[in-house]
Amino acid sequence: MKPQHERDVGMAWGKARGPQQSRRQKASTDLRDLLAAGDEALADTPPHAIPELLGQLEQLKALLWNRLLCPSQRSVPRTDTLMPEPALLDVAAAAEKLRVSRTMIRRLEARGILPGVRIGRRLLFRPDALARFAEGQERHR
Are 110 and 91 in contact (CB under 8 A)? Predict the structure, then answer.
């Protein structure tokens, strides 16, 4: 059986709602109920249980921030922040990578100095081709 403080907190979170309410309405109403009942529900909470409750609150906070910042993703936030490099870069991305203008990228490709891939009217570049080009442009004195 759960301790009294967990039952009180659980009751504040799990109040029954009518079927007409959406999940969002239910969650915000439950949270408001919990906050309103917070002093009463947590008054009997023993000090040794507070760290666990704070940990659960931090988990909820992280999930809510993730939901706010990434609304289309329903999964747990990724821990790695490095994104894989795309297979082909467009003119703007190639110019940004080499820190030159888009016009310069187009001119280098037209002269055959920078190898590009044409798909219809689109001009794309492989990242490794840009790296080789940059290495070839280094000056050794």
Answer: no
Owning domain of residue 47: 4-69
* DSSP state letter for 90: E
Q: What is the pLDDT of residues 43-64, one digit of tens each?
A: 777 788 777 877 888 888 888 7
Mean pLDDT, rounded, for 128-137: 90
Q: What are the strands of the beta sheet with 89-90, ordered from one edge?
A: 89-90, 122-125, 117-119
Q: How many domains does the chain contain in total?
A: 2
105 burial (CB, 10 Å; 0-12 / 13-18 / 19+) is buried
d(Cα 50, Cα 13) in Å, to the nearest integer?
Answer: 17
